[in-house]
Design a protein that fits this description.
The protein has about 100 residues and is α+β, with helices and mostly antiparallel strands. It is built from 4 helices and 4 strands. It has 2 domains: about 55 residues, no CATH class; about 50 residues, no CATH class. Strand 3, helix 4 and strand 4 form a beta-alpha-beta unit.
Length: about 100
């Protein structure tokens, strides 16, 4: 079991705690220098989980992960990345994820 899975498994909420409070507290323990629990929103797809937890990929696993996981940012031909997008894309790339920026 990976350390992140252990963290999530070992996190037990206080009884009758609101979901938002429980989620905030759980995410605080997952958001570290090498992992983050991103809010996962998928309009039009019901039943998707609340969070996507990403961790830095060890160098020896990056090639195999790139075959299965890729992030794509679509921009219009004149579109530019915002400062926040640039920051997150840089973080993902540092962690070993493939990130593509696609323009027409």
């Amino acid at each position: 079991m990976t350390s992140l899975v252990k963290q999530i498994s070992n996190f037990s909420p206080v009884k009758k705690k609101k979901e938002s409070s429980f989620e905030r507290d759980a995410c605080a323990s997952l958001n570290t220098e090498s992992s983050r629990a991103f809010k996962f929103v998928s309009p039009g797809t019901r039943g998707m989980p609340d969070r996507l937890v990403l961790s830095a990929i060890p160098e020896e696993h990056r090639e195999i992960v790139a075959k299965y996981v890729r992030f794509i940012e679509f921009k219009s031909s004149a579109g530019k990345l915002s400062a926040e997008q640039t920051k997150i894309i840089s973080l993902l790339q540092r962690w070993g994820f493939q990130v593509d920026i696609k323009k027409p």
